[in-house]
Amino acid sequence: MSTRAPRYSSVHIIGLGGTGVNIIQRLIESDRFIDFISEEDSSIALLGIDVADGDIDSLNRAAAEVRQKLASKGIPIDRFWLSTLKIRFNTPDTLYDFLTKFDKYLASEGIKVKNYIPWISRATMIPPLAGGVGRMRALSKAIYNLNYYYLIEVNNAIELFKDRVVRSVKTPVVVVIFGLGGGTGSGMVMDFVRHLRAKLGNGIPIIGLAVLPSSADDANARGISSFMALNELQLLFNTELNRKIVDNYGNAYENKFSALFFIPLDLVYNIKGNLVEAKKELDEAIVDILYMLMYFDLADLLSSVGTNNIFTDNWVNSIGFLKIRYPVNDYIKYAKELLESIKIAGKFVKESRDIFEIITKLFTYEYNELVEIFKQSETNSGEYNPELFQSKISEIVEGRNYEPTIKMQIRSVLDYTQYYARKFISALRNINFEEDTIEGSAVSLALKEISKANDLINNYDNLNKNILNEIRERIRAGKNFTTTQREIMESAVDFSNLVISLVSTVKSYVKAKLLADDLSRRNLQIPDSMKNRIGEIAERELNALSQLFQVLTMSPEKQVKLLDEAIARLIDLLESSENRIKEAENQVLSVERETQRLLSEKEELKKEYDKIRIDFSGKKKRIADAISNIDARISSLNKINEQNKEILDKIKDFHNSLKILKDKLDVNKPYRISLLSLMNLEKELISILSNITKTTKYYEKVVELSEYEQNKIIERILMEDQRLDKGDNNVLKDILDKKRFNEIMDSLMRVFRTPSYAGFNNNYKTDFIWVTVSIPEGLWDMDLQQRLMNILSSNIEVEANKAISIRQIPQIEPWTISIMVVYAKGTLKHLEKYNNMIKDVESFKPNEKLLFRSFLLEQGVWDLDTLIKELKKEEIEHERLQ
């Protein structure tokens, strides 16, 4: 086991028939098996015996894979021993001939048989054995004994199995698993256990585990086959009846089991509705029970329900099982993914801030251009006053519409800021330091600033970059932050900086938008080209940039869907700005050409002027005036071109900002890479969280951790607590809300209130119930002890404290509580299915029942009902004489 809890016993397993073989396969395929075998003191011997082909073949394939895994991990393969046998006969005649001499083989064991008659003859219809014995327990018994005595294969297998068992480092225990109604397992089990006990001696417990049939099994399996098996087992486990059997037929028929437990299949089938799935799930529960048996002293249990006690009809013990899984590993995975998404979000917000600052610059450019257009109109109309102009602008953009428009825009980005704020707040709240430490004060300040982003509508004017710088200083000064805590803190500050940039972007947009809308409504004294430019800014450029900004403030998933469309509009703006650059460059060139022409004209005039020596006509003066006019014109053109170049530079700056923005939004650049990572992580987080408490298993309950408990996990990850990855038993105790834990345990353990959970009916009452609880140390307390006693007390006919024995054992699986309840000392009539079995058997004639029998057939006991009645009659008479 990954938790390396100390084991008490070495449990070795024998699977008889399809049921037993399948459970062995489920065991070796379980996630825990390789961990179990990897422990130095671990070894396991497994023996599977069946008549049918399919289950044995499947088990052998699974075993080959296990051996490959062990070899690849450098684990000695010798720790895993498995032998499988398909017991058959070459021809029916081989079986018939063997059975005619069977009494001679029995005599070699000291078993005396009077007037022996084979119970199978050539008249018996034998089914194709590739699919099993067809519920014919008598046929299974015959085939088993043929392979044990004549072919010797089973004898050899048991001998080898015994050699492995006695080499166990821990106290060895053998569990024999079989299905009650299948035919193969229950048909051979009593003879098999007799032979096994002869090999093992009396010192090693042999525990039987029998699976009760379900209502979905075929009629013979759930009816006569199971009925006969139960009544034959009664002859072993009813102490007085077994004593009489021994008196009549010899010591070989003494009960060789140390104990027998039943477990019902019907409960699982009623939920699953599919027999194959139900069997698979029950197999997994039995595997869990087998692991539990390794972790406590079975002598304690056997002292109360073992065959060393005296039982009458109250020999039936059935098991109820429950596994309560706290999916801490899944929550750890979720928490780590969450923190990873926060780290990526930290990188992402840095890129986002750069992008928002570019968009702010673009909005500011639009705003400044509109201001210049308005100034030109004011100048043209003669209303321009440098001292009053700025107040006019302020009145337009910061008037009564400003605050409502700002708040409207802030509301549109609230989902965005709250989405990231909640992420950072959830992490920061789990970085715990004393308030008066540098670390504690840094966390406190960071939380305060992040909280503003969570309620941005009321705080957008209260953001302070200086505080963020102070927080960074404290992060650098804090020596007790773990690397993970420091990363989260830095990311949180980056996010707060992003929020400041975001608000600046909103404000710059609102100012540009309000001014553009106002100017669009005015009768401005400007050329049509400028009026068109206002329309282009208001209806095209601001809208395109605003829509891009809106997309950039959506969730990662929505951004991925819509960003390319927004970028397409950005590309349109780039093309438009390129055209504006060309137009502006043409204007500059045009003025430069005109200036150059005037300079050339001036040069010609100067030459002409210089040629005149004597001027009687006034020509020289006229040339001088022309040159002066040209100079004035050139001066004017130079001023115009300075303005044109300034406009060109601004357009180029605008264009370059668009190019940088487009480049930053390229699919191969950090922003898009982080965006995609965030989206995928979000999907992964949703998937983990939605599946974290799902279970389709009847015996397994998965508990959803509370927010407090989840935060405890996040806190420990931030502290870089290595115990989380090691499955340390104490971690569950440390993170749990104990009061809530006890309440959950109480509600889940209530399944044990009704005996039907173990296959008994409501008439079941007993004076003994055994409970084994596998739980992390320190979690089981007197409160839970009393709660479970109260739950079970409805099945007790004496004082609960004396009748209910609860034993705590170490946690076997990480983060898991397993509870096994043995409802002891029931009778056959207490079994829920027993009355239906009786009804099914009533339709069979006495001679038809023979093939479903096994125990004592060699002694000529073919009529079981009569034998039991006679033995019980003798018992009653004995009690009367006493």
Can I get a quick summary?
The chain is of the alpha/beta class and 882 residues long. Helix 7 packs across helix 8, helix 23 runs antiparallel to helix 24 and helix 29 (738-749) runs parallel beside helix 30 (782-792). The two termini are 54 Å apart.
Give structural notes:
It is a single chain. This protein has a 6-stranded parallel β-sheet, sandwiched between helices. It has a 5-stranded mixed β-sheet with strand order 8-7-11-9-10, sandwiched between helices. The protein is of the alpha/beta class. The longest helix has 56 residues, at 556-611. The chain is 62% helix and 9% strand. α18 (414-428) packs antiparallel against α19 and α21 runs antiparallel to α22 (528-552).
**SSE class:** alpha/beta
The beta-strand count equals 11
Q: What is the end-to-end distance? A: 54 Å
Please tell me the overall pLDDT.
92
